[in-house]
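Hypothesis: this fold can be encoded by more than one sequence.
Test: take the structure tokens below, design a sequence, compare later.
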């Protein structure tokens, strides 16, 4: 079975950059009983990570690595690719803007909506024009946020031939049992750039940690716009710890989340005002809900 866990509270079209519209803004409120504004798993136990970071606080007294090279080496080993095919970033959104900046001479971009707003925002920041039927740079969220749609490898290959560049944001790749394009496969596709998020897999959104995998010449080109010390020292330490201390219960947690998704669909299916979708994804779109 191929499935994604998702809750979609409607889709809003923003004409301005959505810097305030991403949710999980708990700093605005007091104590919350439930928070459905962010796709972060509540089941991840990060107590070991917290303890490790508490013992490594001395790293904040020194500058971090300029390019998080030690973490890039570990990630390359995990995916059986070369370290020069990995670039660690301060979250997936940082990667999006870095890619848009680096490819800005391409001039045009394309996205299929609804999808994550930052692709279009980043492209507009760097002077692109949107070309829905073409576009030199095609952005693809896979699995897609907010719909949960998963693109098969065959479709990805078609898109890579249709556009100069195909940028695949796989931030939610650990939220599905569908087969994802692996970094080892993507580095062999000369015009494909992958974005990955440790935020979603390990539930660490406050640390801001992500990475890009792509052919070495592409990574080298991205580094020309990479800011020194872009990833803070605690985030680097966290990434190294998480990569080397993976939770043996991670697969069980995925099964549990999928079971919970099916239960929510069942319980909500008879409630007026909810539109339920559960083919290859779990998606609940909330409509016409009054206080």
């Amino acid at each position: 079975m191929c499935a994604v866990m998702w809750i979609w509270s409607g889709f809003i079209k923003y004409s301005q950059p959505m810097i305030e519209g991403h949710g999980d803004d708990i700093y605005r409120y007091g104590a919350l009983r439930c928070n459905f504004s962010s796709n972060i798993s509540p089941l991840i136990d990060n107590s070991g990570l917290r303890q490790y970071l508490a013992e490594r606080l001395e790293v904040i007294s020194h500058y971090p690595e300029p390019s998080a090279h030690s973490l890039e080496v570990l990630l390359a080993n995990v995916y059986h690719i070369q370290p020069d095919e990995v670039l660690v970033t301060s979250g997936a959104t940082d990667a999006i803007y870095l890619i848009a900046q680096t490819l800005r001479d391409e001039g045009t971009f394309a996205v299929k909506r609804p999808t994550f707003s930052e692709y279009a925002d980043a492209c507009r920041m760097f002077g692109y024009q949107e070309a829905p039927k073409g576009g030199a740079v095609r952005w693809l969220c896979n699995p897609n946020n907010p719909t949960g749609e998963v693109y098969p490898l065959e479709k990805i290959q078609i898109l890579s031939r249709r556009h100069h560049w195909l940028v695949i944001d796989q931030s939610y790749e650990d939220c599905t049992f569908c087969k994802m394009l692996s970094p080892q496969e993507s580095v062999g596709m000369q015009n494909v750039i992958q974005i990955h998020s440790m935020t979603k897999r390990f539930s660490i959104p406050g640390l801001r940690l992500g990475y890009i995998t792509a052919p070495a010449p592409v990574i080298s080109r991205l580094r020309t716009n990479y800011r020194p010390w872009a990833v803070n020292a605690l985030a680097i330490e966290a990434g190294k710890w998480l990569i080397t201390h993976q939770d043996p219960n991670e697969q069980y947690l995925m099964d549990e989340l999928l079971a919970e998704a099916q239960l929510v669909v069942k319980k909500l299916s008879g409630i007026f005002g909810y539109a339920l979708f559960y083919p290859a994804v779990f998606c609940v779109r909330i409509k016409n809900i009054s206080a």
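Residues 250-268 form the longest helix (19 residues). The chain has ten helices and nine strands.
Hypothesis status: open.
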